[in-house]
Each structure stands twice: as structure tokens, then as C-alpha cells.
Design brief:
single chain, mainly alpha, 0% strand, globular, PIG-V/Gpi18, transferase, transmembrane helix, EC 2.4.1.-, alpha-1,6-mannosyltransferase activity
Length: 517
């Protein structure tokens, strides 16, 4: 009871801190907008939709308020608002995935619909985007805390990591008409439910992350990681897991069953991973249908003729010059410097974890001890109940085997209950390999961060790395870890100075339509 009460209090505190952080950001935006003139004043311009059907064009009652909201929609927010209003009209708009525009349209036509006559339709769409981003951020912070507690098994470290997320250097994007908040919400939530053994909910949320941002498809890697280790566990059981009382013939049958079970686990993992890709692939097909089909050979775009027509890759390369090493130019040096803090932090987080757990990292977790795997069984072990159910359906096991599985299940449940009772205790002294930043549960997140950091440095516009990597939990877990070391006060001052400076500079530049990241 006391642990649940402490857990609820921590989550309430996180929610309050997240609200305060958003109020600070919105206040800074208002201050900078009132003190400075925008560099680009084209944000309020809104030509009629290309389609003949134009929605809700009557003059608003308070045009000044509507104009203020519209002029605050800058950079990618202009695309999201335009898509929400007019749909996907131009080829380059297909670089922006549909989840945020769809939600903006729904909120503008339901909850905020009474404001349309007051401030205008486009202003209501923009206001919907602000509401969605900021509300999603609050829930994202709560889910990051829950995820951190499961991974780190340290409530204080989890709390500090989540506070760092609330004031992260890319905070301006989490309070603007951008998709970062939605992606973080579904990414953190999906990982939390995955580690809580709720695979169906995890698949749904991670699939939604793939409809918010294109990098959401990388979350499919978590299911691939889980499937490989569970299949490996099934193969190990073929050699070691069965009682000696079973006859040789029964041992042969159980071997066959476990091999089939390993294949079944791999197929399940592939299916779950494919579910993460479905929204992104469906959106590419939608683009192909709209831009390629029914057009003459003179009108058809080059990417339509490719063997695998990949619209997103073409847009990124053709319109924004994204590609491997294409940003490595001397004139881009200031952008590399702008991204250097977050890239350095990501590199340190990866290297330090590799130093703490070299055998674990270089074996991709396959050489972890049985005791550690048992503590992280949701990722690394095939649950006994699953093995028993599949075995029973194939009629390969005798009642003695099922009784043995029942005993194992009871031991597993007792171990899990003991683990849960200790999860929220920051005073619990476990071995370094089982809690904190050296936890075995961090491994797939570290691998995910490594791939994202390499992509940001070698392929993308590097200045985007600040917000691109801001949704990666290991950055905050590593920062929290640094603050608990002997030189934690020094690291704490440095990290908070980094966050504060980027929040101030970012809110100043971004809100006034100046380049930031």
C-alpha cells in the first residue's frame, strides 16, 4: 500500500513538473514574440485550398487573436496546419506523416469547433495543434517515468531522468505544432507496455508512433530483439530445461516441440514488427495512389517509375538534400557545432554502457547470465506458461512435464512478485549488473540510440539531431546516472546549463521564425 501511494505521489509530481515546464515554454514564446519581430512574416499567409471545396471561410469575430495564433505557426507547423485544412496537396507535404494533422482536424471539428466563428478556422487548427502537443507531452512524461522505474529499478534516478526530459534542450518543439510530443508519448508508452508484458497494447502504441514520425518504424527493432532472445531461450531449453525423468522418446518429442516453438516465436516477432511498419507503408501507398496512378508518362514523377517506389526517401533527398554524407560541407560547420552537445551526450551514453557491460553489448545480450535474464524475462526468456500451452496443443507432453512447468511458473511468479515489491525502493542494494544504468533492460534502448545517432550524424541535416534524439530515454538515464556520480554536481551544472541555454535560445529563435534545429 505504501509503495503504491509513493508511486502515485511520484507520478503526480511528474505531472505537475511537466505542466510547469510547458507554462514556462509558452510564457517564453509570448515574451519573445512581443519583444522581437519575426524574421519571416509569411506564416499567416494562407491561400485557398487547391480543391474546390473550401471549409469555413467566414470572417472571424476576433481576427486579431486569430492572426496572432496563425503567425505563431512556423516551420514544419505550417505544413501540419495546411495538411489538416486542405489535405495532401503537394508532393513535398508527404514528408509529414498524418497522425498529427488528423488529430488537429478532429479536435478542431469537435472540442474547439465553437471557437471557429470567433478566431477563424485556421487559427483553431493551429490551436488544436498546440493543445495536442502539450497534452501529449504531459502523458509522455508520465510514461517515461513508469518506463524508467521498470528499467532502472530506482525511483529517485527515474524521477530525475524524467525531470530532465521535461526541460530537455528540444523543449520548444514539444510545445509547438510539431509531432515530437505524440511520437514520445506512443514510443515511451509502447516500451512501457512491452516491458509490462502487454504485447498487444505495445504493438498498437508503437505502430501509432510510426504514424507520427517516420523514425517510429525503428521501434520494430524491439520486437525483433525480443523474438531472437526468446527463440534462443527455446533452443537452450531443448538442451537443458527438461527433467531427467522423461523417457528418451519423450525427450525427442519435446526437442521437436521446442524447435517448432522457436520458429513460432520468430514468426510472432516478425508479425509484430511488421505491424509497426503498416501505418508508414500504408501512407506510402496512399502517396503512390494520389501522385502516380492515372497520370500520363510526361506528368509522372521519377520515383513512381522505380522498382520500389519510395516516396518518403525521394522527398527527403530531392527537396531537402538528405542523404549519406551529403551534409558534410565546410559551410555546415555551425550546424555540426549546434548538434555537438546532444551527439556527444549520445556517444558518451553508448560508450559508457559498453564499458560497463562489454560482454553484454558485443554479444547483443546472448551471453548474459541466467540470473540476469530471469530478472528481465519479458525480453530474454520464453515464459513457461507459453511453452506449456503450445506443447499441450501439440500433445507432446505428459502430465509430469506439465507439473514441472507448474512448479517453474510458481517460482517465476514469486520471483516477479519479489521484484515488483522492490521496484520502487531506491534504497534497495542490488548488484550493479541488475539496476541503474547498467541494467540488462537498457541494451535494446542503447542499440536503438546508436542507430538513431549514426543516422542523425551521417545522413540527416545534423542540426535536427537535438530534437531527433530528444525522445531517446537512454539520454536522460545516462544524465541521471552522471548526476549521481562523485562529480555529479559538476555534471549537473553542465547539463542544466545546456538545457536552459537551448530552451532560451530555441524559444527565442524558433518562435520568431529564425533557424534553430
Amino acid at each position: 500500500m505504501s509503495s503504491n501511494s509513493s508511486k502515485n505521489q511520484s507520478q503526480t509530481l511528474i505531472l505537475l513538473i511537466a505542466i510547469v515546464s510547458r507554462l514556462i515554454l509558452l510564457t517564453l514564446i509570448l515574451i519573445w514574440r512581443s519583444l522581437l519581430s519575426p524574421y519571416d512574416t509569411s506564416a499567416p499567409l494562407n491561400p485557398n485550398c487547391l480543391s474546390s471545396h473550401q471549409t469555413l471561410n467566414s470572417p472571424p469575430i476576433s481576427p486579431s487573436i486569430g492572426s496572432s495564433i496563425e503567425s505563431s505557426i512556423v516551420w514544419d507547423g505550417v505544413y501540419f496546419a495546411r495538411i489538416a485544412q486542405c489535405g495532401y496537396e503537394y508532393e513535398q507535404t508527404f514528408a509529414f506523416l498524418p497522425l498529427l494533422p488528423v488529430l488537429m482536424y478532429l479536435v478542431a471539428h469537435t472540442v474547439l469547433a465553437p471557437l471557429v466563428p470567433v478566431i477563424g478556422y485556421r487559427a483553431v487548427l493551429g490551436l488544436s495543434g498546440y493543445v495536442i502537443s502539450n497534452v501529449a507531452f504531459l502523458f509522455a512524461a508520465v510514461y517515461l517515468y513508469r518506463l524508467s522505474v521498470i528499467v532502472l529499478k530506482d525511483r529517485k534516478a527515474s524521477l530525475l531522468a524524467t525531470i530532465l526530459f521535461c526541460f530537455n534542450p528540444a523543449s520548444i518543439f514539444y510545445s509547438s505544432v510539431y509531432s515530437e510530443s505524440l511520437y514520445s508519448l506512443f514510443s515511451f508508452g509502447g516500451l512501457y507496455y512491452l516491458l509490462s508484458s502487454s504485447s498487444t497494447v505495445a504493438v498498437l502504441l508503437l505502430a501509432l508512433s510510426g504514424s507520427a514520425r517516420s523514425n517510429g518504424v525503428l521501434n520494430a527493432g524491439y520486437f525483433c530483439f525480443q523474438a531472437m532472445h526468446q527463440a534462443y531461450d527455446a533452443i537452450l531449453r531443448k538442451k537443458h530445461a527438461w527433467p531427467q525423468s522423461i523417457s528418451p522418446n519423450m525427450c525427442y518429442l519435446s526437442d521437436l516441440c521446442l524447435l517448432k516453438l522457436a520458429v513460432q516465436v520468430l514468426i510472432t516477432g516478425v508479425v509484430r514488427a511488421m505491424c509497426i511498419f503498416v501505418p508508414f507503408i500504408a501512407f506510402q501507398l496512399y502517396g503512390y495512389y494520389n501522385l502516380c496512378l492515372g497520370r500520363s508518362s510526361d506528368e509522372i514523377r521519377p520515383w513512381c517509375k522505380a522498382r520500389i517506389p519510395f516516396l518518403y526517401d525521394f522527398i527527403q533527398s530531392h527537396y531537402w538534400g538528405v542523404g549519406f554524407l551529403r551534409y558534410f560541407e565546410l559551410k555546415q560547420l555551425p550546424n555540426f557545432l549546434l548538434a555537438s552537445p546532444v551527439l556527444s551526450l549520445a556517444l558518451c551514453a553508448i560508450v559508457h554502457y559498453a564499458k560497463l557491460r562489454p560482454e553484454l553489448v558485443f554479444s547483443l545480450g546472448f551471453r548474459a547470465s541466467n540470473k540476469e535474464k530471469d530478472a528481465a524475462s519479458v525480453l530474454y526468456l520464453l515464459e513457461p506458461v507459453q511453452a506449456a500451452n503450445n506443447a499441450q496443443s501439440l500433445e507432446f507432453f505428459s502430465s509430469e512435464v506439465q507439473q514441472e512447468d507448474s512448479v517453474i511458473r510458481q517460482r517465476k511468479h514469486r520471483s516477479k512478485a519479489d521484484s515488483d515489491s522492490l521496484r520502487y525502493s531506491s534504497d534497495e542494494q542490488e548488484t550493479p549488473s541488475k539496476q541503474g544504468y547498467s541494467s540488462i533492460l537498457l541494451l535494446p534502448c542503447i542499440l536503438h540510440l546508436g542507430f538513431m545517432a549514426a543516422t542523425a550524424f551521417f545522413v540527416m541535416h545534423v542540426q535536427v539531431a537535438t530534437r531527433f534524439l530528444s525522445s531517446s530515454p537512454p539520454l536522460y538515464w545516462f544524465s541521471s546516472y552522471l548526476m549521481h556520480t562523485r562529480s555529479g554536481s559538476k555534471w549537473g551544472r553542465l547539463l542544466w546549463a545546456y538545457c536552459a541555454s537551448y530552451i532560451l535560445i530555441g524559444s527565442l529563435l524558433f518562435s520568431n521564425f529564425y533557424p534553430f534545429t
